[in-house]
Amino acid sequence: MAGPSLRPHVHWAQRHRELYLRVELSDVQNPDISIADNVLRFRAQGHGAKGDNIYEFEIEFLEPVEPKPVCRVTQRQLNITVQKKESNWWERLTKQEKRPLFLAPDFDRWLDESDAEMELKEKEEEKINKMKIESRVPKDPFRHLKKGYLIMYNLVQFLGFSWIFVNMTVRLFILGKDSFYDTFHTIADMMYFCQTLALMEIMNSLIGLVRSPLLPAVAQIFGRNFILFVVLGSLEEMQSKPVVFFIFYFWSIIELFRYPYYMLSCIGIEWKPLTWLRYTAWIPLYPLGGLAEAVCIIQSIPIFSETGKFSLALPNPLNVTIQFSFLLQVYLIVLFLGIFVNFRHLYKQRKRHLGPKKRKMK
């Protein structure tokens, strides 16, 4: 049971427009702070000089203040900010001339009047300079057009990959494993459209429409298009392989979170569950997608070796032919390097958006 109420140690400082009160209480619970008739009343449960107890105090201010104090509770103390009604310097804090015993200057924030005036002047000059700089920067007359284009682009891509995902999911439930073998013939046209349109992401980065780094975008888009157009699009034998289902499925799931996230970002909206999915879903999906692409390449190597498709015969005395299947083996190394580049990029983004926020300790 708590003992009788006590007064905590309170430290104060001022500026021309504000008063700062630091109440030396830790583990504060249920603080009741109000200002009425120019008197601040404080009452709270906390751990102070007399242990865990109820502490309270009243301060009648020297001059009028705003009746809405701002309170910030930390683990070690409680900070109160009070706005003065008029910007001026007070000779003391309280209306009574004799300073209360529990009240003392806050030397960590203490400034005399001349120093406070200099600080105020510096802040005003900084604000004016910032306004001057902003006024010199010309406003982009096409910013609304650019924003509209980015919203439409992300919306179209989201609808396209949603169609792919829903179509494949429905077919999987209806046909089961049989849907694996004709995925390419039913989905390829939409995938061709979406992946061709994705080339615009490289252009967007090049001309500065988005601030995304260029290398990860190039690695992903050209890697996917190589699999789609060169490996799958040119070999009918590969188009009926079950691996096509997994490649298309993993690609579409990733984009279901990425494109709506970017679309909402264009209009300044952040939905936290979507942000979490955008920067978390890639952790299992990227390795699975990369593995499916690697399996696809490995399965296509014997076919390219047998048919000699895309192989290049050099006109020289040795009659050397560069087999495309050999280039695919080299590409396998490039594929995993590309996955590493995207992993590194996405990990940094995840850390920036979902990592723990740094807290200021006092």
From TrEMBL:
Membrane-topology annotation of the record: Multi-pass membrane protein
Regions that span the bilayer: 149-170, 190-207, 214-232, 244-264, 285-304, 324-343
Catalytic activity, as annotated: (3R)-hydroxyhexadecanoyl-CoA = (2E)-hexadecenoyl-CoA + H2O; a very-long-chain (3R)-3-hydroxyacyl-CoA = a very-long-chain (2E)-enoyl-CoA + H2O
Any single biological process term in GO: fatty acid elongation
Any Pfam family the entry gives: PTPLA
Annotated metabolic or biological route of this protein: Lipid metabolism; fatty acid biosynthesis
One Gene Ontology molecular-function label: very-long-chain (3R)-3-hydroxyacyl-CoA dehydratase activity
InterPro entries reported for this sequence: CS_dom, HSP20-like_chaperone, Tyr_Pase-like_PTPLA
Entry keywords, A to Z: Coiled coil, Endoplasmic reticulum, Fatty acid biosynthesis, Fatty acid metabolism, Lipid biosynthesis, Lipid metabolism, Lyase, Membrane, Transmembrane, Transmembrane helix
PROSITE patterns recorded: CS
Protein's cellular compartments: Endoplasmic reticulum membrane
GO cellular component labels: endoplasmic reticulum membrane
Main function: Catalyzes the third of the four reactions of the long-chain fatty acids elongation cycle. This endoplasmic reticulum-bound enzymatic process, allows the addition of two carbons to the chain of long- and very long-chain fatty acids/VLCFAs per cycle. This enzyme catalyzes the dehydration of the 3-hydroxyacyl-CoA intermediate into trans-2,3-enoyl-CoA, within each cycle of fatty acid elongation. Thereby, it participates in the production of VLCFAs of different chain lengths that are involved in multiple biological processes as precursors of membrane lipids and lipid mediators. Catalyzes the third of the four reactions of the long-chain fatty acids elongation cycle. This endoplasmic reticulum-bound enzymatic process, allows the addition of two carbons to the chain of long- and very long-chain fatty acids/VLCFAs per cycle. This enzyme catalyzes the dehydration of the 3-hydroxyacyl-CoA intermediate into trans-2,3-enoyl-CoA, within each cycle of fatty acid elongation. Thereby, it participates to the production of VLCFAs of different chain lengths that are involved in multiple biological processes as precursors of membrane lipids and lipid mediators.
Name of the protein in its database record: Very-long-chain (3R)-3-hydroxyacyl-CoA dehydratase
Biological source species: Melopsittacus undulatus
Origin organism lineage: Eukaryota, Metazoa, Chordata, Craniata, Vertebrata
